[in-house]
Amino acid sequence: MSAPPEFPEKADVQRLVAYGYDFERSRHFILEVKTPQKARAFLAGLVELGLITDASADNEDVIARKNRGCCPTHIGFTFRGLQELRLSPALLLAFREKAQAYTEGAALRAARRLADSGASAAPWWDASFQHGRAHLLLSFYADTENELDRFAEVLRQIPGADDLDGWDAALDGCHLSPDKAQRRVHFGFRDGISNPRIAGFHSPEAVPESKAPGLHAPGEFLLGYENDEGFNPWLLLNPEPRPNPWLLPTAHFDPGFFRNGSFAAFRKIEQHEAEFNAFVSAHATQLGVSEAYVRAKLAGRWDDGSVVRPDEESAPLPAPANDGDPPPEAPLNDFDFSDDAKGRGCPFGAHIRRMNPRGDLIVPFRRRPLIRRGMPYGRRYQDAPADKRGLLGLFFCASLEDQFEHLLAQWGYANPMGPDNWGDAKDPLIGNHQDARAVFDIPVAGEQTRQIDGFKPFVTTRGTLYAFYPGLSALRDIARMDALRR
Hints:
By secondary structure, the protein is of the alpha+beta class. The protein has a domain at 10-267 and 464-485. It has helices at 15-18, 36-48, 59-67, 79-84, 89-98, 100-104, 106-113, 145-156, 273-287, 291-299, 351-355, 400-412, 472-479, 481-485, and strands spanning 25-33, 73-77, 136-142, 164-165, 171-174, 197-198, 215-216, 262-271, 371-372, 375-377, 390-397, 440-442, 450-452, 459-469. The longest helix has 15 residues, at 273-287. The two termini are 19 Å apart.
């Protein structure tokens, strides 16, 4: 088999993996396959109508298509879904050998690998996320609810759509403010500050900052390419001296089926804002500091997105704009922790330092980047305190085990990594806190370390599924019965 190209072909990659959307709303359907032939007819319709947006489309193309009534659309498949669609045994076996987390599914790994227990345990997840019925994840994006409604009707008119269950249980995301430059999530933190950049999709000029991470190799997010370590686990070459006949490319399948695909974790997280606000207020009073200070130490960033610097007691004033232009976004991501080795700015236990310990020399790790495509759901707490609200998170990576699960179960749930750190609380924002005596350390120069305790879960997992987002050519294969039988 010839070596894969160095960079992916954009026209074969689902656009959502490489680029996010700037629209105000999203809609997700978790669908169940009832009849394989009819489900494949629906998939064929998606492809033939050109509804799946690929990465060769630029922002102007996407907006023009949306304005014509064709919302950018993407589809992922759970392993159970591919089984129901009768994918060939050879391809299913390759998934089993290369992607154990994906083939087992999130529900079966939740307690062991995602720290989901108690109220967040898989048996209590929403019905649409249950292991036996979550087969397809169909997502699309627009600015208004009317646009989403109209396009949902377009999808439901495609032959085979009426044989898929789940159309009556849409999951809708919506940004909390129309101000795109100041988007916030529930709890009030700035949203959409940074995402990894991918070689072949983004130019080096897209990350000009001195300390921001550079371009990642495509294999960190797309199958069939080398990752940052120079390793390509999806090359699928036959091992020597004992070839595996199941993986013999010329006899059973084209390894190109996997190339340009990506794995994703789709996660619905309910946020308990009243409890979080009360917790912050109580500890601000206890420590004699502002609520903004407590929030910043827990998150690692001030509400405006700027990282907490050593010995900073209040958020820095924004830099003056140049010639009337708004301040650039890039500086919000232009930092690492090399000048904060004691955790006196951003504590070792803070959310952002756990999820991306950039520049921490004490951490013997390889980078584990995730692409985040999340959006809040529910109205703002100030407008409707009694409503349910939270985050619909979609996280793309090439390895669910080494990236998504490692961040949650190891960096998020284990004790923080750092010298002279005695804190043992979980991630303060998303941790499944079970020990009220666990403490969060706030090192402070010239005084005894401040500590926060009494944590309780501020979020509850309402569902997670693992999906494979195939390249466009593989999606065509899935939709064709003859390709599935070869």
